């Protein structure tokens, strides 16, 4: 059940409520002896809305440098290049390129042989219109002589006339 708190605990709790960080001597002495009051002080401190401390200006800007200073250093290998070595390498590349170029020009070029078909055979093998049917009746009509074309037209007119009568 609920027992009333002792007088010393009540005075310590009042001091904690007043200022949990700055306690008088009597309250500090009681906190050393009473675990319940110590727990109450910790809970009271946890409930306070304390402002977060501000970081100094430039703290996060200088953070990578500070971290790198704490890491062990690694020796930097410097590539020692001699200018004479670079010049020799460039001259070798130029000599190789020019040698290959002149070797290609010195080799006699064999003439290229192209196959040729006589023009008459080409015309015979190629159709007049590549995508048209060569058996088109209109094309055949153009190949006929004028007398033959008149005879074909008469036959056509006779076949289209009703009941076989001539127009």
Which features characterize this protein?
mainly alpha; 8 helices; 0% strand; elongated
Protein architecture, described:
The chain is mainly alpha-helical and 167 residues long. The protein is 59% helix and 0% strand. The chain has eight helices and no strands. It has helices spanning 7-18, 25-33, 35-47, 59-70, 83-106, 119-125, 137-143, 146-160. Helix 1 (7-18) packs across helix 2 (25-33), helix 1 runs parallel beside helix 3 (35-47) and helix 2 (25-33) packs across helix 3 (35-47). The protein is elongated, with a radius of gyration of 56 Å. The N and C termini lie far apart (132 Å).
Q: Can I get a quick summary?
A:
By secondary structure, this protein is mainly α. It has eight helices and no strands.
Task: List the SSEs and their pairings.
Blueprint: H1 7-18, H2 25-33, H3 35-47, H4 59-70, H5 83-106, H6 119-125, H7 137-143, H8 146-160
Helix pairs in contact: 1-2, 1-3, 2-3
pLDDT under 50 segments (min length 5)? Answer: none
Strand residue percentage: under 5%
Task: Supply Rg.
Answer: 56 Å
Number-wise, the strands total 0
Q: What is the molecular shape?
A: elongated
Classification by helices and strands? mainly alpha
Distance between the first and last residues' Cα: 132 Å
